[in-house]
Amino acid sequence: MEEQVEMVGRAFVEHYYHLFDTDRSSLASLYHQSSMLTFEGQKLQGVDICAKINQLPFDKCHHFISTIDTQPSSFAGGITVFVSGSLRLMCEEHPLRFSQMFHLIPTPQGSFYVQNDIFRLNYG
Amino acid sequence: MEEQVEMVGRAFVEHYYHLFDTDRSSLASLYHQSSMLTFEGQKLQGVDICAKINQLPFDKCHHFISTIDTQPSSFAGGITVFVSGSLRLMCEEHPLRFSQMFHLIPTPQGSFYVQNDIFRLNYG
Questions:
Q1: Interatomic CA distance for residues A5 and B119, integer angstroms
Q2: What is the pTM of this model?
């Protein structure tokens, strides 16, 4: 069980940032109508999440993952994923450090969607 | 509803780090038998959480909070809290940046306990 949670979490993280870096618009498939994103303090829900992600003011980027922590959440079958890493924008010399958490909920089809997503750049 | 979630999240954060900095052993009351902590990658559950917190290799410390983000979780009445800030140890000149997330679950008594807790120092 513990191992499965970790495996799903890691596979999700790999999939998520690969899509983000190569085909950002397809991230829409990972969010539902009820999904919530808090991006640098800005709260978004449902379709607004994908609009926000697609309108971020940079074109090409690359995420480097430093740590992935996973825990089963109390919600039946849910998984909490906590990521730290850095984000390299093509127009910027220095990568930006970030932390992000996801709460993944299983779908009846046997996959997962993102119910909660909180993203913060780490300054300082 | 949204405002209440934010209020509870902020009050929890204030309470949690105040206890951590002034009376660390009393944090035990915020965790249950089922609670999970991942501390810098180390996984702990139930009573082991408090043992870990009490045995951290520094005596006095002070947490400075930079950001608090809250979202209702899909679990009925649950709240996801995401914190970034810095940790000043009395023996260290430079504060350490950290990120931490909590998943709070309501108790029948009308308060909340920590079901999920993930802590990471932010290097770099």
A1: 18
A2: 0.95
